[in-house]
């Protein structure tokens, strides 16, 4: 089985900050907007180097999204930055009308997604954002897995004409994607090849899926691990190719079971290849205060939960 | 253009509005009729724009955003009469597969429209964004918006108002259609705007007032607003209008906000509105 080396540990939001600065240097049309969370989003470096292309919106997210949509008229490529909750739920109608329906070239960049926001608690821990964003026509939805991939995705979306939702997080997590890897929107990464089960994961759950696959290998179970960094458009071919071989699947995400990656995968399978599926995700409940690690354990999003789900789904084959 | 010519265009626009709304058996005639004079003056007298070669980016052109998207009939008519698309297309308003959606959208690529609107309160933010891009592009043209008075009850308007003043977005002229009516009745009764002039001043805007049916006032005030751009402050014009202006039985009543006239009522309206440029 392919072994993954931990290249370091960093937060994915820092990958966004570095990617934004780098794409800002490469593309003079890139502009950035932030709603009073410049430090949290790691947008300081862009602000320092390109103050004339940075727009501080204040705590007024609806206006920020509306302005970003307007800024595309005349050729700018706006990146908006705030927490995932305020990037989606708070401004759903603004995104729906001014960005998605109007097909504006806005990049909605959302940090502190999911339970791993931690101690601030459920008011800030959005677990519904992938669902909301993937329901919108014209919207591309990307959930990169580590620091390197978040940086690569942040840069790649500038070349994609159209609205994008880019979701990343707060905690420091292992880096395993190579720094020079090419990020292709809509093309899944098969990280580990296996024959007994397919694990499809996104975001912070990808590394945990690698860990799960390693533990399963020690127990004689061969798991294939797919990093589904693009939820929409979904790489249906990668899903079907893998499951034609393994005949069962576990999906893993830091999101509600309703509306997330697991739902998206299930829809593909229901239409083309009905398959036993188990879900690792949050089951119709809000989060709470705690450390990121404590929360991932309490809400069943940890490596042992993936191992357990794999064993359960294999029995259903 | 002579005032008489502008008035003749606006009269035809009013005919278009009532015929479109009647033809679709739905739509919003009241506010549309009230803004016919303003939009005619804006598109035929004030704005530098390029109806024959519409570009989404609108570089080196003045831009207009309709924030109260439900008065789409007046905008579509003015766009068609300006040359953005064939006037015959006005007959397709609100019909299946039409580019002229009930509320303006870019979805079907209708020339002249750069942003969807309908869900209220978003157009000022959109216009500020476009104005910021004009500044980044060293493009000296102006961005115009139109808002309903009831629309000002939306909180996003005031987020945008605060931003524009704090950041000296001075290439922006917003106009408020102050007809005092909204769906449930008079704005004063539904949710009073209080001292509207004072509110905008307190937010840091230059505030002008005008009579939305007086051509000398429209031209003079819009010209004055234009002369005030580039001085560090956004500009708002509180424009007094009558909902339903031009059709006697609709004037001044909120009842014609979103109701289409029937065949008899249409005839009664058309008698009052001379066919000046030819119907579609």
Automatic annotation (TrEMBL), chain A:
Residues 10-175 form the Transketolase-like pyrimidine-binding domain. Its cofactor is thiamine diphosphate. The keyword Transport does not apply. The keyword tRNA-binding does not apply. Signal peptide: none annotated. SUPFAM superfamilies: Thiamin diphosphate-binding fold (THDP-binding) (SSF52518), TK C-terminal domain-like (SSF52922). CDD domains: TPP_PYR_DXS_TK_like (cd07033). Keywords: Thiamine pyrophosphate. InterPro entries: PDH/Transketolase (IPR051157), THDP-binding (IPR029061), Transketo_C/PFOR_II (IPR009014), Transketolase-like_Pyr-bd (IPR005475), Transketolase_C (IPR033248). Pfam families: Transket_pyr, Transketolase_C. Belongs to the transketolase family. This is Transketolase family protein. It comes from Fluviicola chungangensis. The lineage of its organism: Bacteria, Pseudomonadati, Bacteroidota, Flavobacteriia, Flavobacteriales.
